[in-house]
Write the C-alpha cells for this entry.
Amino acid sequence: MEDPVGEIPRIIRSLTQSQPSKQRATIERYFTPSASFIHPFCRTGSFEGSRWLIWCIYRWYKIMSPRIEISVDGVAYDEKNLTLYVNIHQVFRIWIIPFYNAPVSFVTVLKLVRHPPLPPQPSYSTSINPNERDGSLRKTSSSEKPLYYIQSQNDLYQVNEFFKFFSQFGVLSALLLLLQFVSTALCVLGATVLWPVSWVEQNVIGGNREKSILDAAKG
C-alpha cells in the first residue's frame, strides 16, 4: 500500500467479497509472509509462511458465507506506530443454516511495516488477470513512496457483538444487555456506599499517586 487509509477499504472488500484467486492474490500482495491473524475463533501466530494460514481462514470464511455484506464505517491511522484502526460492520450468513443471520460490528487493528520503494515492475502478478484493472490489485508501484504491508490483523469484538454469532433473534445479546445494566447498577451502589474511600483519596492522598491509603494512615 502507498496510502493505507485510502486503500484499506478496497483491500477489505477484496478479502471478503472477491473470487478465490483474487482473494489469495490480495493476501499475497498486502500481507507479509510472516503475518499473523487473531480472531475470537482462531489465531495463526507469526512465523515464516504463516500468511498461508491467513489465506485458509479467509477461504473458509468465504465458503461458509459466500455472499457477505460488509462496510467500512471509519478508518483511523496512527502513523507513528504504523497502526490502522478500521471500524467494520458486516452481515454474516451461513448458507447451510436457514435463517442464520449475524449482523456484527467490530474493530480490526492492523499493524503495518514500512518498506522502502521497490524498483519498477511493469509486469502484473501472475495470479491476477491483466485486464482486470478495477483498482483493487494493480501492478506494483514504481513511485518513490514507501510501501506498507500488513504484519498482523487483530479483530476485536465487544462481547455482545460476539454473542450474535451464537444466538438467533438476539436472545443472548438481550440477556447480556440486561447483565450490563445490572453491572452498572452495582457500580452506582458501590460508588455510593464506599464514598469515604473517594473522600480519603481526594483529601488525604491527593489523587493517583504512589502513596496508598495505608501509607496515608501511617502518616
Observations:
- Residues 123-128, 130-142 have pLDDT under 50 and may be disordered.
- The radius of gyration is 23 Å.
